[in-house]
């Protein structure tokens, strides 16, 4: 009698998970189904004959235990998670004992996870299942030059709140140092704490403290000229990759999860269809002087005590009124983060402003490179290869067979300089459909 083949089961519903977790989970499920895997999702009771894939954080936020814990009756269980520190949060490595395999989205997380599992004598196989970009972040045609008598040259920062590890207030400080009358900065963050200002323009800085739709986000990206991301640490850092996919020049820290893509575009530099100055090329080199930059790297940083160490102590001092995440233990050491040099960020921002034509042409090339090399279909292929390495591929249920070469590489191949033909490149209409309140900050005023 033939053995029952195993479906892939993702416990929990897409709307249960929070922020990026829910969206990433849905994209991966969709890609696996396109690839022919038989995928089930939803609920917290395991269906028969399945492999459980738990994509969440082990000990944080409502419902996560229901999603993370291995369910009775599953043949294999996979813990798939991400973290933004060089030391895993307390208890996380031990939580993998119940699983057969461990997945993370980046080499950085995989290396940290392997080290911590080894320290706890937990012997399970790990795999990197890299994220893809949302195809809706398609390349947009931008003005090659803005400023002086036209629209202001606009820098953009996006994060949870401007005080967190993505360093919005740091960007604010550097912008104040370098700004000219034809520059603008947008700080986009979500409502938090007792923030009073939702839509506000003050001294060439727009504070956007609100959730916005995907279409409004893309309109904001179209009207921006450079994305600034001096983050301390990322598990993967999908945001700058997806923003680069629109052709927006990006400046990002060359550390942690971003290292899987920030220096991945050597072949594009070898095939640039226009002359690039040596000065420009220097801005895209890594610390060793290699020219592979997908975006402008922030190379000048020091490794300092993790931001989570300070945030955890703040939790202890103020209680759970503000910092209510169970991730934060004031007695735990979360390792080290990258503290970017203020001078390095200022230099990169000024360079993007003074060399708009080159940086935007380069970003346009990189957008096509991203769409060719960071697709969710590639994540599905990585899953297939992971199962093959575990020796269980023959146990997997399929809806239909897949020609992987055509599936992953045959759909977008063209003859342009990047080897990619992107046909959907119509830009969105200009204008952010949000009205800001304009005023000048009072002397000594601190904006929330």
Task: Write a structural description.
The chain has 448 residues and is of the alpha/beta class. Helix content is 31%, strand content 16%. The protein is built from 14 helices and 16 strands. The chain has helices spanning 19-35, 64-68, 92-95, 107-119, 168-178, 214-222, 238-244, 266-269, 278-283, 307-318, 342-354, 356-373, 376-390, 404-409, and strands at 7-10, 39-41, 50-55, 76-80, 101-104, 125-128, 153-159, 183-189, 199-202, 205-209, 226-229, 250-253, 296-298, 301-305, 336-340, 437-439. An eight-stranded mixed sheet has the order 13-12-11-7-8-10-9-16, sandwiched between helices. It has a six-stranded parallel sheet with strand order 2-1-3-4-5-6. A two-stranded antiparallel ribbon has the order 14-15. α1 packs across α13. The protein is globular, with a radius of gyration of 22 Å. The termini are far apart.
pLDDT averaged residue by residue: 83
Helix share of residues?
A: 25-40%
Shape: globular
| Count of alpha/pi helices | 14
Q: Estimate what percentage of residues fall within beta strands.
A: 15-25%
Low-confidence stretches: 411-448
What is the straight-line distance between the termini?
66 Å
Strand order of the largest sheet: 13-12-11-7-8-10-9-16
Query: Structural class, judged by helices and strands?
Result: alpha/beta
Quick summary:
The chain is α/β, with parallel strands linked by helices. Helix 1 packs across helix 13 and helix 5 crosses helix 11.
């Amino acid at each position: 009698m033939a053995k029952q083949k195993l479906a892939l089961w993702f416990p929990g519903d897409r709307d249960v998970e929070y922020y990026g977790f829910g969206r990433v989970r849905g994209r991966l499920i969709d890609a696996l189904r396109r690839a022919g895997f038989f995928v089930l999702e939803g609920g917290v009771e395991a269906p028969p004959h399945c492999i459980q894939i738990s994509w969440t954080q082990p000990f944080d936020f409502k419902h996560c235990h229901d999603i993370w814990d291995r369910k009775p009756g599953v043949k294999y269980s996979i813990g798939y998670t991400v973290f933004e520190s060089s030391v895993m949060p307390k208890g996380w490595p031990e939580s993998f004992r119940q699983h057969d395999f461990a997945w993370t989205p980046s080499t950085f997380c995989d290396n940290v996870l392997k080290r911590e599992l080894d320290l706890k004598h937990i012997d399970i196989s790990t795999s990197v299942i890299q994220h893809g970009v949302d195809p809706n972040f398609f390349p947009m045609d931008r003005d090659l030059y803005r400023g002086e008598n036209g629209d202001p040259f606009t820098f953009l920062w996006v994060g949870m709140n401007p005080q967190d590890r993505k360093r919005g207030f740091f960007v604010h400080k550097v912008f104040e140092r370098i700004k000219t009358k034809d520059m603008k900065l947008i700080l986009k963050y979500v409502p938090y704490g007792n923030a009073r200002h939702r839509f506000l323009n003050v001294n060439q800085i727009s504070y956007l403290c609100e959730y916005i739709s995907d279409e409004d986000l893309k309109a904001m990206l179209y009207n921006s000229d450079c994305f600034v991301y001096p983050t301390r640490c990322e598990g993967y850092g999908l945001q700058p990759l997806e923003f680069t996919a629109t052709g927006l020049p990006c400046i990002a820290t060359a550390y942690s999860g971003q290292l899987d893509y920030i220096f991945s575009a050597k072949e594009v530099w070898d095939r640039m269809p226009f002359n690039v100055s040596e000065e420009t090329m220097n801005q895209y080199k890594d610390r060793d002087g290699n020219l592979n930059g997908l975006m402008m790297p922030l190379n000048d940083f020091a490794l300092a005590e993790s931001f989570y160490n300070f945030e955890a102590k703040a939790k202890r001092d103020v209680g759970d009124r503000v910092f209510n995440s169970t991730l934060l233990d004031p007695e735990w050491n979360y390792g080290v983060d990258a503290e970017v040099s203020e001078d390095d960020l200022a230099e990169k921002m000024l360079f993007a402003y003074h060399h708009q034509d080159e940086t935007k042409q380069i970003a346009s090339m990189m957008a096509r490179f991203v769409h060719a090399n960071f697709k969710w279909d590639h994540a599905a292929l990585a899953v297939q290869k992971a199962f093959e390495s575990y020796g269980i591929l023959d146990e997997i249920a399929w809806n239909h067979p897949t020609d992987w070469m055509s599936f992953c590489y045959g759909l977008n191949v063209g003859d342009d300089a990047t080897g990619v033909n992107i046909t959907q490149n119509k830009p969105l209409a200009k204008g952010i459909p949000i009205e800001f309140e304009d005023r000048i900050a009072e002397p000594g005023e601190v904006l929330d």
